[in-house]
Amino acid sequence: MEQHYITSFDITNLPRFAIGFDRMFEELARTQEKLSNTNYPPYNILRTAETEYSIEVAVAGFEEDELEVELVDGELIIKGETKSKTVENIGNYLHRGIAARNFVRTFALPDDVEIKGARVRNGILTVDVEIFIPQSTKKTIAITFEK
């Protein structure tokens, strides 16, 4: 089965047809504003099951006490803050190609999400996310006929 992904989408006409989605459109606009031009640190987003995802962030060079993962007001916030390195350690490098600079990476999440856990392995921070979908989204509406 071939999958197609939409990489750009104009939502300006959708509010005319999508009633009650005002908050979603506002969230999309807010997320668009937050997009930064930097791709540091690099990250992956994997779909591991129908409602489960893993976010992988490259955090090589960060110590355990230099990383923080929070869920605040519908946003997953991943922070990396390096402690000041001593001058003698920095002076020993002939080439320093592995960046370990401070960062904040945010991901907008829906209200019905649960963070299953976070772990670091081989320099990759993985945050597991599960989205809960209501069991029944179909509802029959009774029609009343008037004379």
Question: What this model shows, in words?
Answer:
The protein contains 2 helices and 7 strands; from the N terminus they run αββββαβββ. It has 147 residues and is mainly β. It has a domain of 93 residues: Immunoglobulin-like. The chain has a 4-stranded antiparallel beta sheet, with no helix packed on it. It has a 3-stranded antiparallel beta sheet with strand order 3-4-5.
Radius of gyration: 21 Å
Q: Work out the helicity level.
A: 10-25%
Q: Into which percentage range does the β-strand content fall?
A: 25-35%
User: Which CATH architecture of the domain at 39-131 would you pick?
Assistant: Sandwich
Average residue pLDDT: 80
Structural class given helices, strands, pairing? mainly beta
Strand order of the largest sheet: 1-2-7-6
Give me a quick take on this structure.
With 147 residues, this protein is mainly beta.
SSE layout and pairing:
Elements lengths: L21 H13 L8 E7 L2 E7 L8 E6 L2 E6 L6 H5 L11 E6 L4 E9 L2 E8 L16
Antiparallel strand pairs: 1-2, 2-7, 3-4, 4-5, 6-7
List keywords for this structure.
Immunoglobulin-like; three-stranded antiparallel β-sheet; four-stranded antiparallel β-sheet; 147 residues; 33% strand; mainly beta
